[in-house]
Amino acid sequence: MMAGRPPWTAAELLATVGARQFRDHTTVFAGVGVPLLAVALAQRRHAPHLTVVLEGGIVGPRPRPGRLPTSTNEMRAAYGAVMLPAITDTFLLAQRGFLDCGCIGGAQIDRHGNVNSSVIGADHRRPEVRLPGTGGANDIASLCRELVVLTVHERRRFVPRVDFVTSPGWLDGGDRRARAGLRFGGVTKVVTTLGVFDFDPASRRMRVQALHPGVTLDAVRAATGFEVMAPARIDTTPPPTAEELEVLRALDPDRRQLA
Amino acid sequence: MSPRGADFVAARRRLEAKPKSAGEKLTTLEAAAARVEDGAVVAVGGCLYSRTPIALVREILRLRRTGLTLVRSLTCTEGELLMAAGAVDRVVTAWMSIGLPWGVSRILREHVESGRVAFEEWSHLGLGLRLRAGAMGVPFLPTLTMVGSDLAWIDGLREVADPYTGERVAAVPALFPDVALLHVHRADRSGNCQIDGYPHMDADLALAASTVLVTAEEIVADDVVRRRPDRTVIPGFAVDALVHVPFGAFPHECYGLYEADFEHFQEYADATRARGTAAVHDYLERYVHAPASFAACLDLFGTDRLERQRRLAQELTG
Predict the structure, then answer these.
(1) Which residues of B touch A131 (CB under 8 A)?
(2) Closest in B109, B113, B146 to A142, CB measured
(3) Reduced to 3 states, what is the DSSP secondary structure of residue A109?
(4) In chain B, is it the N or the C terminus that has fewer CB atoms within a 10 Å radius of its CB?
(5) Contacts of B175 in chain A (CB under 8 A)
């Protein structure tokens, strides 16, 4: 191991710290990739009664070690499921209010937690980059009671204002989300490779809650394209423990997703 | 958005005009696919690489149809083939890529960034409710999703006032596809269809569309269906054409029967990353146009490969 490099990958850090955001006896709508790893870890450690919901139409799966799905709608994703509703009915569970939390990744995120996975560029019809699209991310961000975003912390991702609001956070801040007609939900946490961020209750601007060990506020500012609020008290995240990493790595022994 | 797509009265008249028969639906892939006309709005069942009606899509590509609108919840390789073949002008979907490990689709980027193909992006629930409204025969459905996002703006999402309380909510317009393409696990000859595993949006597609074309892994005697009528998800009178096609979703997966061929996806993704649309044209020649039948196309994969994907599925769901 090279000196100075932590003994975990970015994916492992995000999955470990992400997992701690979920509570037992709740429901979470997870996207594929690191979000699914985070909820699977949470289930195996502190939240055995956490129900995971996936957008392919899957309730209550228990991912099988070594056979992690690469989409949210395939046999690997349905392993151990208790119910397989139609896709529309799965999302209607969130609309009704059954989903306590959503967990998604983010291509581009801004100071109010809006996420863009649609287009880079000013004209959506002739974009500079056409990204894959919303999938269920807009629905998860619009309908779940809380939202946790897991993402690598880089200046090119953390922009003052996303080019396109695919998944609404707090829109333009303040009470704009409610005034736009989104009565429920809202982004509550952004877990990154530098720390954990929440949102100031009044302005709804992104705010440092905790920094990972060894990470400075200057490092965060250098990696963020907008001014992130910094309260007087900033916690330090407990680093991934050997036990957390062991459970996580048992899920992906070939390290197809953790590397 | 096509006005024809949202007109629920015209959609009902179109449905009334077709036979609601419990008679024989079995036919050939060629005869089924021939019912897809140029310019049609074609809704493809399954989701991403799950239970995609690949054999039917292949047949439509062989017919060299043009001007199509592709409707799919999450769009995968079939969308790339249809784009590269010049078959589609518009895609109505929530997401398009082969899958997360293969990154952003170069084919999607080439065709949409150039303006050759219009990409009409709806949230997954938004699109699902459009098709649900179609299946219900109503002009729209109220929803709480998509509100406040730029998706609402580009799609022209409108609001309605609750007629009882005056509260304002969003309304998604119904979508009535011309054609639905579906792949199911089993059907009897009248077209009563049963699906194992996740249903995705197939039942809504079958009721919303004017013409319903189905491929089935297995054709069963009608008393097999009648013994377990609780398992039927599409009634025969909704189905216009039925074809027996084992491995009809391959190289995508069919729940419980065969896993998706991820090695094949990797080969395809490597080729398209390197050479873009030219690689897809080669792929179309090799897998769509050169083999005279879908069985001949499956021979390119070989029985060992098909068996391996079948075993992997049984390990996961058995």
Answers:
(1) 104
(2) B146
(3) strand
(4) C
(5) none
Query: DSSP labels for chain B?
Result: --HHHH-HHHHHHHHHHS----S--B--HHHHHTTPPTT-EEEE-SBTTBS--HHHHHHHHHTT--SEEEE-SEE-HHHHHHHHTT-EEEEEESEESS-GGG-S-HHHHHHHHTTSSEEEE--HHHHHHHHHHHHHT-SEEEESSSTTSHHHHHTT-EEEE-TTT--EEEEEEP---SEEEEEEEEEETT--EE--S--TTHHHHHHHSSEEEEEEEEEE-HHHHHHSGGGEEE-GGG-SEEEE-TTTTTTSBBTTTB---HHHHHHHHHHHHHHTHHHHHHHIIIIIISSSSHHHHHHHH-HHHHHHHHHHHHHHH-
What digits encode the pLDDT tens for the residues B177-208? 999 999 999 999 999 999 999 999 999 999 99
Q: Which residue of A has its CA nearest to B72?
A: A135
Convert the pLDDT of each residue in B70-129 to its tens digit.
999 999 999 999 999 999 999 999 999 999 889 999 999 999 999 999 999 999 999 999
- Tell me what ipTM this predicted complex has: 0.97
Residue A174 sits at the chain B interface (C-beta within 8 Å): no
Contact assignment for A78 to B99 by CB distance below 8 Å: no
Give B-chain residues touching A71 at CB under 8 angstroms: 48-50, 74, 99-100
A 10 A CB-CB count for A122 gives 10
Chain CA centroid to CA A169, Å: 12
Partner-chain contact B316 A136, CB within 8 Å:
no
Among candidate residues A198, A199, A197, A124, the one with its CA nearest the CA of residue A165 = A124
State the Cα angle at B182 between B178 and B186, rounded to 5°. Answer: 140
